[in-house]
């Protein structure tokens, strides 16, 4: 799908779908919608009078033009109140426009639903959010049906603008990068476990590295053994699939000094291992590499946008399977950090592979670390599928991240990490145990992971509730959501602009 600019009177634009907007306080069509209204002999004024077009946010009214203007159809989208209009609304509206275009099989869309200039929003943020919403809405997973239905493609979106600046164009580039990174993460999550193996995940990472000239490193089992990565190795023991420690390095600065570390859980299928999960909905556990997928999606966008920041991406990847070789409850293992762990439940495997992921990220020079993981069912009880949970050992770092997430339009909420909770993961016979009981399950899981970050500023994002969705919205499909890709890219861009100190 291409997005370009167009400067032409609105009534002469040849397109399948012309998308225009209407604020809820307006009693008459304004601007371009007024021009169209005139050409249609007041048809739109009539619909407003009759209360069919109210301007309520995201309301849609489809009007056929029967040759009265060059556009085949007009979509009037409600913009809500002008004062409340913001970047998030632009993203939603672009998404609604694209979903409608798909429904009516429009190939060419022209739009300027709110004017490129709006007092609340910087103009390059308008084009950013528009491009982002459009590409997010256009996403569909290809699937594997033998009788493939052709999926309708919107080929071109023309944004109507009188003047085109480099800033406006950069906005489109950014929005496109954020969305295509997110869509890449969605593809990885939606790919079933028999295809999305650790080996395949590593191949996908190498593709990104090659596309953008990044360095990469894939550690195999023997190298993990040499480095003492007992956490990842223990989880991988029961699987026929070889584990991989996937590393990408993006150099945005001369010196490899300030380095942002992204560590993503790449558990390509979680059966629970010997502590086997119940059968119902176990298929959804193909999404247990959602953290790793978000990291790869972010690296794709970072490769496109080239911010002036160093980033190291680390993805410990394996399956968690029961077998005669599998690790067992009661086992004690030693991680790369030297810390020992008593395994009480083999289904609490994410924190074990992340322990080595975080230690390795530090070893590679990460000076701030964000880890992302579909880590606990408990986070679904706490925050549902709406909000990602964040925990940290450094409030300033989290404040930067929260701002970035807000800008990116992703919902994040902090949970506490008070020392009292650490009691729950102390073991009698090792440094830590891998379960902390029923109470505060997301927090004790985070603190377990944080024990390996030690003094390095660290944020943990539990995306078990948000990486997967069972409903469709304007910007998402059912399945993998690609959550947190945009927030990661946003904070990388922030540090690229303002530095990390
Ligand atoms: N991958 C799961 C967490 C999960 C649950 C992700 C639901 C997505 C949706 C994780 O490995 C897990 O099994 N966690 C256990 C930990 C427990 C055994 C301490 C859990 O949350 O039940
Ligand atoms: Mn598990
Ligand atoms: Zn898991």
Automatic annotation (TrEMBL):
Give the positions the UniProt entry annotates as the active site. 277, 351
- Swiss-Prot/TrEMBL GO biological process terms: proteolysis
Spell out the GO cellular component terms annotated for this protein, sorted alphabetically and separated by semicolons: cytoplasm
Q: Which residues bind Mn(2+) 1?
A: 270, 347, 349
- Pfam families assigned to the protein according to its UniProt record, in alphabetical order: Peptidase_M17 (PF00883), Peptidase_M17_N (PF02789)
The UniProt catalytic activity note for this protein reads:
Release of an N-terminal amino acid, preferentially leucine, but not glutamic or aspartic acids; Release of an N-terminal amino acid, Xaa-|-Yaa-, in which Xaa is preferably Leu, but may be other amino acids including Pro although not Arg or Lys, and Yaa may be Pro. Amino acid amides and methyl esters are also readily hydrolyzed, but rates on arylamides are exceedingly low
Task: State a single Gene Ontology molecular function.
Answer: metalloaminopeptidase activity
Q: What is its EC number?
A: 3.4.11.1, 3.4.11.10
Cofactor binding notes: Binds 2 manganese ions per subunit.
- Gene3D superfamilies reported in the protein's UniProt record: Leucine Aminopeptidase, subunit E, domain 1 (3.40.220.10), Zn peptidases (3.40.630.10)
This protein's superkingdom? Bacteria
Residue ranges annotated for the Cytosol aminopeptidase domain, each copy included: 345-352
What cofactors does the UniProt entry give for this protein?
A: Mn(2+)
Protein location: Cytoplasm
Which sites bind Mn(2+) 2? 265, 270, 288, 349
Q: Which UniProt keywords apply?
A: Aminopeptidase, Cytoplasm, Hydrolase, Manganese, Metal-binding, Protease
- PANTHER family for the chain: CYTOSOL AMINOPEPTIDASE (PTHR11963:SF23), LEUCINE AMINOPEPTIDASE-RELATED (PTHR11963)
**Which family does this protein fall into?**
Belongs to the peptidase M17 family.
Q: What does this protein do?
A: Presumably involved in the processing and regular turnover of intracellular proteins. Catalyzes the removal of unsubstituted N-terminal amino acids from various peptides.
User: Can you name this protein?
Assistant: Probable cytosol aminopeptidase
Q: Which organism is it from?
A: Tepidibacillus decaturensis
**Its encoding gene is what?**
pepA
